[in-house]
Design goal:
single chain, alpha/beta, Ribose 5-phosphate Isomerase B, Chain: A, 5-stranded parallel beta sheet, 6 helices
Length: 150
Amino acid sequence: MEKLIACGSDHAGFELKRLLQKQLSDLNLSWEDVGSYEDDVCVDYPKYAAAVAERVLASSGGRGLLVCGSGMGMMIAANRFKGIRATLCHDVTSARLARSHNDANILVLGGRLIGISVAHDILKIFMTTEFEGGRHQKRVDQIDDLSFNA
C-alpha cells in the first residue's frame, strides 16, 4: 500500500496547508485533504486533528500534516489517539529528530508562527527522514503504552 499523507487544517492554517500540499506533490508524495476547505469560515480544529489521526492509523506507514494558528491545539488533539505521535516543529533539527528518534507520524505547524520557507524545509525533512529504530524503539513503545484512544 502506498504511503498516504493526510492533511488537515483549521481556517488559520488553511493557506499554509495549501502551499505545503503543492510541495508534497512536487516531492511525488500522495496526500489527501480532510479539510478544512476554506479560510473564511471559522472552524473547530479538533475535528480535523481527529480526521488526520484516524487516516494515519488506517494507513500502514502513513503520515500526517496538521496546520492551525499556533499548532498547539492540533498537536494536543491528535496525540489523544493511541499510536499517534504528533509533533510541533519550528525548525529542521526538531523535524529530523522527531522522525529519526521518536518515529513521529504527524507533523504539526503553526501557520501564524512560522515562515513559508522554513515550513517548506521542515516538511521536506519530516517526510524524507526515516525512523532509526534500535535503541529508540524501546522508548517509542513506552510512549505508545501510555496513550489511550480518544
